Amino acid sequence: MKIRIDEIRDKIIDLSVVEDVADYPVLKALQESGECTFLGPLRVQLSVAREYDHIRAHGRVATAVHLGCSRCLSEFDAEIDSPFTFFYMPAAAGVSQDEEVELTEEDLVSATYEGDEIDFVGEISEQVLTEIPIKPLCTEDCKGLCPVCGTDLNETECGCADDLFNCKFGALKNLRVEK
């Protein structure tokens, strides 16, 4: 998804697009690695306006993903709906992008562009990635699997005793250190 800089004059440009996940290389790689499956295309709404010395892009990205629970291993679907605002400024000539600098809070929502167009693919991909949980849970109160027999504790109770907890440091409980 790109927009030409010269199209952004004194008016706000509103865009509403539906794009395939394959158009976003980072999201496509995430799906190919098996971490999640996108159930549909990305629905992107975007308002772009010129403000002073920068361009403001405010919008929302939504889609649905299929994930595996990190506790009980069951599969579930989740909706992603993420609002965002980014500020784009022209890249400063002569400044090295490899140089280490301290970022301010404003820099965290800022991006630079070169040339005569802005490509939103990177920032939209980033918004979707931040909404996908690192350790997805099917429900907040998921009980997971029994560590002894592997029974899904959300569906049924198992007959394993709760006192089978194996603490590797249990042998140290009677250790006494003399001074």
Provide a concise account of the structure shown.
The chain is mainly β and 179 residues long. It has helices spanning 25-32, 121-131; strands at 2-4, 13-19, 37-38, 42-51, 54-68, 75-90, 110-113, 117-119.
Structural features, described:
There is one protein chain. With 179 residues, the chain is mainly β. It has one domain. The protein is 11% helix and 34% strand. It has 2 helices and 8 strands, in the order ββαββββββα. Strands 2, 3, 4, 5, 6 and 7 form a 6-stranded mixed beta sheet that branches. The longest helix has 11 residues, at 121-131. The protein is elongated and about 75 Å long.
Q: What would the keywords be for this entry?
A:
179 residues; mainly beta; six-stranded mixed sheet; two-stranded antiparallel ribbon; 2 helices
* End-to-end C-alpha gap: 70 Å
Number of domains: 1
Structural class: mainly beta
Specify the number of helices.
Answer: 2
Mean pLDDT: 83
The parts where pLDDT drops under 50 for at least 5 residues are none
Give the overall shape. elongated
Q: What helical percentage do the residues reach?
A: 10-25%
Strand content is 25-35%
Total beta-strand segments: 8
Largest sheet: 6 strands, mixed
Radius of gyration: 24 Å
Order of helices and strands: EEHEEEEEEH
